Amino acid sequence: WSSAMVVDVALRLAVEESLAAHATSNAVFLAERLVACSPSPETKYLLATAYHAAGETHRAFAVLSPATTPKNRFLLAVCAFKLGKFKEAENALNGSQFGTDGSPNEAYAQLLLGQICRASNRNTQAIEHFQKALMLQPTLWVAWDNLCQLGYDEDPTTLFHEEAILLQFQQMRSSMSTPAVKPQAQPSGLSLEMPEAATPMSMGKANLSTSVHPSTPGSSVGVMSTVTPITPWTSSNLQTGSTPVSAPNNSGSLAANFATPVQTHMDFTPDSSLTPTGSGPPPLLSKVAAPPRRPRSDRSEIPRAQRSSAVRSLDGENTDPSLTLGLGSGSVRRSTRSAATNHILIPGPIGFPSFSNNHEMIEEDLPRVKKQHMTSFPSSRGSMGSSSHSSNQNITSCQSPRPTDSLSANLLQTTDALELLHLLKKFAQAFRHLSMYRSSEALQALSELPRCHQNTGWVQCQVAIAHFNMAQHHKAEEAFRRCRQLEPHRLKGMEIYSTVLWFLKREHDLCYLAQEMVALDRLAPQTWCVLGNCFSLQREFETAIKFFHRAVQVDPCFTYAYTLAGHEHVSNEDFDKATSAFRDAVRYDDRHYNAWYGLGTIYLKQEKFQLAEYHFRRALEINPRNSVLHCYLGMALLSSSAYDDAIAVLNRAIEMDPNNPLAKLRKAMALSQLNRNEEALEELISLQQIAPRESTVLIQMGKVQKKLGKLHDALASFNHASDLDPKMGNIIKGHIDKLQMADLLEEDSML
What we know:
Blueprint: H1 3-20, H2 24-37, H3 41-53, H4 57-64, H5 70-82, H6 86-93, H7 106-119, H8 123-136, H9 141-149, H10 162-176, E1 211-212, E2 223-224, E3 243-246, E4 259-262, H11 304-314, H12 406-435, H13 439-447, H14 451-454, H15 457-469, H16 473-486, H17 494-503, H18 507-520, H19 525-537, H20 541-554, H21 559-571, H22 575-588, H23 593-605, H24 609-622, H25 627-639, H26 643-656, H27 661-673, H28 677-690, H29 695-707, H30 711-724, H31 729-750
Antiparallel strand pairs: 1-2, 3-4
Helix pairs in contact: 1-2, 1-3, 2-3, 3-4, 3-5, 4-5, 5-6, 6-7, 7-8, 8-9, 9-12, 10-12, 12-13, 13-15, 15-16, 16-17, 17-19, 18-19, 19-20, 19-21, 20-21, 21-22, 21-23, 22-23, 23-24, 24-25, 25-26, 25-27, 26-27, 27-28, 28-29, 29-30, 30-31
């Protein structure tokens, strides 16, 4: 074998180690050397993975084009999607059989297709793809997130199926328990076998990996992923039961016919069927010294459960079910991997990190949840004590003892899958209500989550948004404060927090939030929205608009920045630019009701009442429980002289928010137009209790009292309004003059 072949294998391992250690620049350099030595789809995939990890998406796209293998096509589609090349991304996904050759399974392909269709404004097709993704793999939360944002309002049970998640976990267990094949015959001369202690992916005490082990070149793949103390290959290993495992088959690579030996735990009597054959280790490895070993006489010092678990690890059964549930915020969490001591470490190629056919995880990655009635399992260490949980806290992060047989392990993992599905349904139900602006139901569903999840930034952020949608700004501020205490580094949702502070006129708090956001990430669109709201509160509208435009430059799809910029243009009475900004927001997200509302206010100011009514109704179709939207629709109808319709709409606004002063004022005006002055006066009296220092209320009250002939009461109302707001003195003086003229006319008529 030539030296180039040896370099090829060494480079592969070095690239994989660099990717696992997140040394992306080093991985890129080594992967480029690898492709120069051995250009093939596999090596190009490694190079593209390194480019993608380093943020050089355009280079990854160039390396993969044209892609032939399924995993190359999938990574090509991911890169094309990030580059905005939606047609190329869709073409790469169509006609490929995913789930083979180390490529992600079909569920991830459907998820990516849904994202492509949504970005292309093909929402109907996007919904279909997201539905297929969830039905194939219920743990794809991002698919449900996208469905809710598209207005999908079906019960989560229609997509989160028990059969699907059980099949998913079964495939995980079967892929992780696939036995390694026996080593193939070694060619004479130079061998490429490497000691386990010398492989890059096995360095360190807690490095975990997965490896592909085909029985023959080109056969289907399987995954083994367990952990063991690292022991170099020596001649003594052949007599103590170590089992060499074949090296990864990288689609015809030179290392396909060679085996990488792996040391297993030696404190039990090895099965004769697992004992390797052959005369000894390869010559290159014979000089590697073995660490001191525990003599066989010390076997009694090892607990029986440890020895039995080591035996079971060779049978492919679960050996450590002590797992934790790790579901964090946003979209995007990974469970931590803990290093066990009685497993097998098998180095292997690094696949695409976010999408994996075999999920590239060991059994310690599976989330652990407990049912209330499952309080103990048989174990050589004794049974676990029972623990009580409330009805809304039956899912906890806890550890359980190791089961003694494969039946218990399978039962435990089946229960885990069902409990995880139950938890995901709770989250899905809450997020569905929130996306459909049913804020009360969303708050109720969020309160029923386990306490460990309620005390997370994601949940508190959703609670705050629910209160914000209900115009409960003080409660929203409290929830956002808790969110920041739990996750001070959180960016998502902070643009809403800044708007809450803007409504509450908390200038100091808003300035402090802006400084912290700038310190966290200057390139986040949320940061520039917070800065824009900060300057808007200080009435520096031009500076605020610049910051909102900067947010759009950072992320052209950040819809909320367009809306905020539109409101600032309205404040400057630049209606053309405001209309353009609101239309851009609707173009990126047609369910962004704030933009429809903004367009309606512009047309209302321009006295285009029919257009205003249309846009307010579009906003209400999205958010039918918003009192402000009903109020503005009533104002548009009132301006169109549709008084009865206006009163009906304003009544709904008052039912949703009894303390909405604008709705009560407009209702009183509509009643006065219909000469229902007594009802109008009652409405104004109740409104005065809510807003006692509002001059507009007193002026309208004076008008109604004048119609009712209560001239002295009307004069008192006008004088009180003048005292509260001297700036409106001229308007109030005009009403007083008319009142005095009416009084004179009344005296003349009496004479």
